[in-house]
Automatic annotation (TrEMBL):
It catalyses: [protein]-peptidylproline (omega=180) = [protein]-peptidylproline (omega=0). This is Peptidyl-prolyl cis-trans isomerase. One of its GO terms (molecular function) is isomerase activity. It comes from the Bacteria. The lineage of its organism: Bacteria, Bacillati, Actinomycetota, Actinomycetes, Mycobacteriales. SUPFAM superfamilies: Cyclophilin-like.
Amino acid sequence: MLGVLAVGVTLVASTAGIVSATPAPAREQGPTGCGAPAAGQPNGKQWPAEPGMTIDTNAGYTATLATTCGTVTIALDAARAPRTVNSFVFLAGERFFDHTKCHRMTTEGIFVLQCGDPTATGMGGPGYFFPDENLAGATYPAGTVAMANAGPGTNGSQFFIVYRDAPLPPNYTPFGRVTAGMEVLSSIAAAGVQDGSGDGAPAVEVVLDSVAAVRN
């Protein structure tokens, strides 16, 4: 859910402690650098309301996305986007992201890979929404991780990763930055969009085999 990428939503969108799934073991990769996904399906859990705050907003958190195309590591910004990071850590701990596809690649105008939807349709989420954060002066240089949405206050689980500086308006909560794995994103982007357009499903299947979020 990105307004610009939206879902019916687009760029977008437990009491969990801080742990999550164990990254999947490495597998043999095909010529694109991407391998077959680990066995399993999204659990599709739903919650009626945003989780209560369990993270320490003064601490650092790291998310590790083990994808079929390589591993991406993200430093989460709990100080500037506490509710967003709290939700992400909660969902990771519930293994909500495991086995979900990154359903959207945009290669024209903005440059993002969008993930976090268990339905892979651009319409899915965790059953709750939460408000925007950290928008004052927000910019989206390469490496930014931000929430997709369908308008103000509609953050859920969908997020996007900027692989090249994107001229987006400050409407999408930035909550992290890629610290390792930009080459993985560049490789996915280089393969383009499945239908040859500038916006759609990635040409290579990108699945989040597991997502772990831990306190540093």
